[in-house]
Amino acid sequence: MLVRASIGTLAKLGLSSVRMSDEPTTAYFLQYSDNGCLGKCGFCNQSRMTVGRQDWLGKIVWPLVESSLILRSWRDVFKRICFQTVLKKGFITEAKSFIQGISGVSRLPISLAITPVPKGVLEEFKELGVSELGVGLDTATRELFAKWGKPYTWEIYWSFIENAVEVFGRGRVYVHLIVGLGERLREAVDTLIKIYSAGARAALFNYFDTGSMKSIDKKYYRVVQLAVELLENGENPLDYIDVDAGVFKRQPPVDVFKALYTRGCPGCNRPFYTDLPSSIYNYPSRRTLEKHRQIVIEELRSIGVMV
User: What sequence ranges are listed for the domain Radical SAM core (predicted)?
Assistant: First the structure.
């Protein structure tokens, strides 16, 4: 079975030689399809509609590798394993096969990122050892969901999120939200509140346009990151954020530095997945954040947050 693996994952397994300022703490694998994913998501290089290189996801190279080589080379040098599916014929069976294989050589917790499937299939994945589930809702509104070509429907995704929480438990389902796809701040915050109200959590990504090689306004992203940290601490972000002005009207009672780390499953740091070392949206480590501490302080002050 051919799969894609992030270049950092391969490097930690001794299968690639690449210099890394921050090493991945999760082993990242992506299902492979000869013809690309059947989904038509306009922001994803894996889509069959893409004109970009399919060996890239975000700003990271994902070479093709035989899964048997991964298993032979396996070392528990990570904190977690993440397997991301694509839409293609037989993708559920293939995902089960990969998870069974990796479970035979590793005791690490496993995350699975998947599009809507029946509740019974989720239960089967849980029995195979999947402990956390990733759901690529990606967009903050029903209108943007349609505009960016997401498969299925907005309603089907929300029903799937509810089913996933029932199967895996509250706090073990991570809804992926890409910030900067055209939503207003109020819409992003409202969707985040809905995610947490459903018993799920947020995994944040900043939109990066591979055509222009530009990302979104960083101040805007910092507000959204802090909104998630407030929700993680049981607070309502709307009590602290002026969503019209895009700044904080009250100092948030949270660790403001913690809010800026990569937001995903436990042990997920996605180093430079959608960032450049010179302009970081999601900090992969404390060491890297400290190197940019003064820049971070200035960014936070610009949105009304004191450090």
Answer: 22-242
Residue 254 is encoded by which pair of tokens?
Answer: 């949270």
| Alpha carbon distance 262, 204 (integer Å) | 7
Neighbouring residues of 144: CB distance < 8 A, sequence distance ≥ 6: 181, 182, 183
- At residue 153, φ and ψ (nearest 5 deg) are -135, 165
Residue 3, φ and ψ in degrees, nearest 5: -135, 165
Instruction: Look up the pTM and report it.
Output: 0.96
141 pLDDT higher than 70 = yes
Residue 190 burial (CB < 10 Å; 0-12/13-18/19+)?
middle
Per-residue pLDDT reduced to its tens digit, 33-80:
998 899 999 888 777 555 555 666 777 889 999 999 999 999 999 999
Rounded distance, CA 86 to CA 116, Å? Answer: 11
The pLDDT of residue 138 is above 80: yes
Neighbouring-strand partners of residue 177 = 138, 204
Please give the CATH superfamily to which domain 2-302 belongs. Answer: Aldolase class I (3.20.20.70)
Summarize the confidence of residues 78-95 as an average pLDDT: 97
241 bridge partner residues: 248
Query: What is the C-alpha to C-alpha distance for residues 253 and 278, in angstroms, rounded to an integer?
Result: 29
Over residues 291-296, the mean pLDDT reads: 96
* CB-based contact 70:16 (threshold 8 Å): no
d(CA 226, CA 204): 11
At a CB cut-off of 8 Å and minimum separation 6, what does 143 contact?
none
pLDDT tens digit sequence for 148-195:
999 999 999 999 999 999 999 999 999 999 999 999 999 999 999 999
Contact 65, 15 (CB under 8 A): yes
DSSP 211: T
Whether 67 contacts 2, CB under 8 Å = yes
First to last CA, the chain: 49
Q: For residues 151 and 302, give the distance between their C-alpha atoms in angstroms, rounded to a whole number.
A: 37
